[in-house]
Design goal:
Shape: globular
Order of helices and strands: HEHHEEEEHH
Strand order of the largest sheet: 1-5-4-3-2
Number of helices: 5
Helix content: 25-40%
Number of strands: 5
Largest sheet: 5 strands, antiparallel
Strand content: 25-35%
Radius of gyration: 18 Å
Distance between the termini: 23 Å
Length: about 170
């Protein structure tokens, strides 16, 4: 829902920046972003500088697991014009996470983002925004989806759907 052209347009109109996740429900957009990062994997350091590539890795140990997240951002890339529908787009991001659970199980995840971020320290700002996004996703939305089965709800009547949403959030 967050990765919509109208939403980012309103954010820019209000004078703010955005970092929005591109999830599996937008397969074409997600594939296009993935292609940029496939290209990134094959180019020289000099070419990386030309596409405005920056990266930062954060590691932490909490709740009995070890997690490493690599945040990558491509900005000032001529190919970003393909995403012209997203007002103010200046960069695309990827987060690669590697989690080692208590039992030794390894879980890998790759997430993509569109952003209006640019300038000094941009990859740190991107990392902070992406991390906060998933904090919200993992707390509020997870409870609504898993505990209350919100995604499985097939209510078609708009008023009923809104009433159920309010009731779930109150609960």
């Amino acid at each position: 829902m967050g990765c919509q052209t109208e939403i980012v347009k309103k954010v820019i109109e209000k004078g703010a920046d955005y970092v929005v996740a591109c999830k599996e429900n937008q397969p074409t957009l997600r594939q296009e972003i993935a292609e940029y990062y496939e290209y990134r994997d094959w180019v020289s350091q000099e070419e990386l500088c030309q596409i405005g590539y920056s990266t930062i890795t954060q590691k932490e140990k909490s709740r009995g697991r070890i997690e490493s997240r690599t945040y990558e951002l491509i900005e000032e890339c001529a190919m970003l014009s393909r995403f012209h529908d997203f007002t103010g787009i200046r960069s695309i991001g990827r987060v690669l996470s590697l989690v080692i659970l208590r039992d030794g199980t390894v879980r890998k995840d790759e997430r993509y983002f569109l952003a209006s971020l640019t300038g000094g320290g941009v990859v740190k700002r991107f990392a902070r925004a992406a991390r906060k996004h998933w904090g919200i996703e993992n707390s509020c939305h997870w409870v609504l989806d898993v505990a209350f089965g919100e995604d499985a709800c097939r209510t078609r009547d708009e008023v009923t759907a809104q009433n159920l949403t309010v009731a779930r959030k109150l609960a």
